[in-house]
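Same chain as my last thread, 272 residues:
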Amino acid sequence: MLLALAIGTTACATEKNDTVVFNSPSQVIVMTSDSVQRVKIKGKNDDEKYLYESRVSINNSTSKMIKKSITRDENGIVLDLGYGWAIPTNTPQGNGFAVFKSWEWMIGLRYCYTPKNALQTYSVGLWCDWRSYTVPCDHVISKNADDIVVFGEYPSNVSETSSTIRIFSLSVPFLFTQKFGKNSKASFSLGPVVNFNVRGRINNEWTDNDINYETSTKSIGQRPVTVDFMGILRYGDVSLYCKYSPMSVLKSKSENGVENPQFHSMTFGLFF
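reply #2:
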């Protein structure tokens, strides 16, 4: 529209160097591709059959700069991927977890909305989240006759032991992102993550007399819904994240009303 106004305001058609001015064109057509822009002028005040056409090459570096300026926190759907190390806190007295054997990884989609000319982005999504809490090699997690999760030790005659609590969740993040500047690559995000913990298991493995054993226990009494608080510090395409849940992983009481061991979850890791 601006082009049509610019070329249709004079009283005659003249040409000087790279400038062409038309009087009252009947139609102006502008077609743009990645490398070429075509301008077609049909008709003028004294000649309805007049036709003018021009092609202009577009510098590829300009389009690359435009594409590069679009970051993952602009409007639209983005793919999230994260991997971290789980650090259970407030663990039962005398029992702990092996930090570098406890992990979390997540994958999912998130919709981002950035108001025009704003440095803030609001997003909501859906993630699949897997968490694994592993105790030291000589310890074991199990359920007793009262369906209570208990901590203990493997017999001294077994080897190659492993004991893990695993939780699978469908998570809904609500994140607020603040950029440090219009052209800055740095930003931070904060917000709650609601976890619907749809499955919990205890996996135990050990070797006895060169025979490998493995057991899997379901219905371990995980909380059906927990809320984490998540923070992400981003620079470019790589981010560091931290998640902390103030709610215990297991229910406070079993179906029989007996106390379950309580521990919370904190994770640190990489977020892409």
